[in-house]
Design goal:
Layout (H helix, E strand, L loop, with lengths): L1 H30 L3 H29 L4 H27 L4 H25 L1
């Protein structure tokens, strides 16, 4: 039973760490001036959110029967946040990035992290 509990907590912390790495990658990408550096940060970001989505799908499948509404809400917020991350990079490349898009992205990421902490409390 202890191994079962720690595995789910490990998934939650791993997802939180990936979100923090995504914030760092987003910050690096949108603050650069050269297109090569922006595209490099975009590639790292896409790799990170691909791994994040895979881990979140595995976690969601395992815990869906215990907290279905919270799991669905967490996954939807994650999809929105990842979409806004990609929109931010595309607008930066085209030169039309606005500060409001970055704030919406950061707020969605923070909401996703808060939901993960709520899930952690439900599973303890």
């Amino acid at each position: 039973m202890i191994k079962f509990y720690w595995r789910h907590i490990m998934f939650i912390y791993l997802i939180i760490i990936l979100w923090l790495l995504l914030i760092i990658s987003l910050t690096i990408g949108v603050t650069r001036k050269q297109d090569k550096q922006i595209v490099k940060a975009l590639m790292y970001t896409r790799a990170l959110y691909f791994v994040l989505l895979m881990i979140e799908v595995v976690f969601s499948i395992q815990k869906f029967n215990q907290q279905p509404s919270l799991i669905i809400f967490s996954f939807i917020i994650s999809i929105f946040a990842i979409s806004f991350i990609d929109i931010s990079f595309q607008r930066k490349i085209h030169g039309t990035l606005k500060l409001s898009i970055i704030w919406i992205t950061i707020i969605l990421i923070i909401i996703a992290i808060i939901i993960l902490f709520m899930l952690k409390q439900k599973f303890v």
